[in-house]
Amino acid sequence: MRLLLASASETRLALLRAAGLELEALPARIDEEGVRGALEAEGASPLDVADTLAEMKAQKLAERHREALVLGCDQVLAFRREVWGKAPSPKALRAQLLRLRGETHKLISAVVLYEEGRPVWRHAGEVRLTMRDFSDSWIDGYIARNWEAVRHSVGGYHLEGEGVRLFSAVEGDYFTVLGLPLLPLLNYLGQRGFIPT
User: Considering just the CA atoms, what is the radius of gyration of the chain in Å?
Assistant: First the structure.
């Protein structure tokens, strides 16, 4: 079956293609901030926020492509009782990183798969990340050097880049940090016969 990724994430697309999958990326535009705000106001958990956003993306694309398998993904950062998305500016990213300095936060990456216009599988992965006690001057330089590369990343970092220097510990699956619980997804696709095993 045709596989569609309801995301503009180049990282997710690259991960799936590197794993040998043939697919297309067709971003599904939804009001992520509005949905996140409404869910938070209702007391939704970070996992529920990520899962709902992933499903909304998959559903929107699946409505137009019922013949395809549609993969919706989303990632949120959970810190204390807050759920964060992408920082809108370098100034906002600086404030976020300074709040996370020396602290542990979670990244939750959700994936929902639609088949014939309905959800058939979902999974959410969670990773705990502890930031080191970096200096104000180092973080200013980090943001200046990396803003364009990380502006579309929850948390404002890439572990595959200089962002790895923000951390003293990472507990969990590397692919989940990158925004896609890849191994559970590949296992499901293989079990269903969508990919050779």
Answer: 17
Beta-bridged to residue 3, according to DSSP, are 69
Closest by Cα among 187, 183, 191, 57 to 125: 183
Q: What does the pLDDT look like over 99-128, one tens digit per residue? A: 999 999 999 999 999 999 999 999 999 999
Query: Would residue 51 show up in a list of annotated catalytic residues for this protein?
Result: no
* Burial classification of residue 193, based on how many CB atoms lie within 10 Å of its CB (0-12 exposed, 13-18 middle, 19 or more buried): exposed
Handedness of CA 149, 154, 158, 162 (dihedral sign): positive
Distances, alpha carbon 155 to alpha carbons 64, 84, 92, 194, in Å:
32, 8, 11, 33
Q: Could you tell me what percent of the chain has a pLDDT over 90?
A: 95
Q: Pick the catalytic residue from 74, 136, 140, 173.
A: 74
Domain spans, the chain: 3-191
Q: What sign for the dihedral angle of Cα 96, 57, 13, 168? A: positive
How wide is the angle at C-alpha 148 spanned by C-alphas 155 and 152, nearest 5°?
40
Its sign, for the CA torsion 132, 157, 189, 49, is positive
State whether CATH 3.40.1800.10 applies to domain 3-191. Answer: no
CA distance 39 to 145: 34
* Alpha-carbon span 29 to 51, nearest angstrom: 16
